[in-house]
Design brief:
Blueprint (H helix, E strand, L loop, with lengths): L1 H4 L12 E4 L2 E6 L2 E6 L3 H14 L2 H17 L4 H17 L4 H7 L1
Antiparallel strand pairs: 1-2, 2-3
Length: 106
């Protein structure tokens, strides 16, 4: 795969009972695994801010829909889901995305 797509894949090993995989952190606590989304609030806001400036309203729903679907489909504990939901709400507010549409997507 590295030769075909010019992508360098490196193995990732568990350290201190967690492993980072793409934008997830998977933590081993005794005999169970917990997942969390690993992306900084500021980084996510910056990425979407440009998108929100140049995109028509109907297409602005796609990133919000993606992030909302992700928090509901990943095995996040309730506290982590709430944290991610607050980040999504903050991004929407900072980019003038209507809160009623965000609630409808949720």
């Amino acid at each position: 795969m590295n030769k075909i797509h010019n992508i360098k894949l490196n193995p990732t090993y568990e350290e201190h009972n967690f492993i980072a995989y793409l934008d997830l952190i998977i933590t081993r606590i005794h005999t169970k695994l917990e997942a969390d989304i690993y992306i900084g609030n500021q980084q996510l806001q910056t990425q979407q801010f440009t998108f929100f400036l140049i995109t028509p309203q109907n297409k602005k729903m796609a990133p919000s829909r993606f992030h909302i679907t992700r928090i509901h489909s990943l095995p996040l504990n309730p506290d982590k889901k709430q944290t991610q939901w607050k980040i999504i709400q903050s991004i929407a507010k900072n980019n003038n995305f209507p809160q009623h549409l965000l609630l409808k997507l949720n």
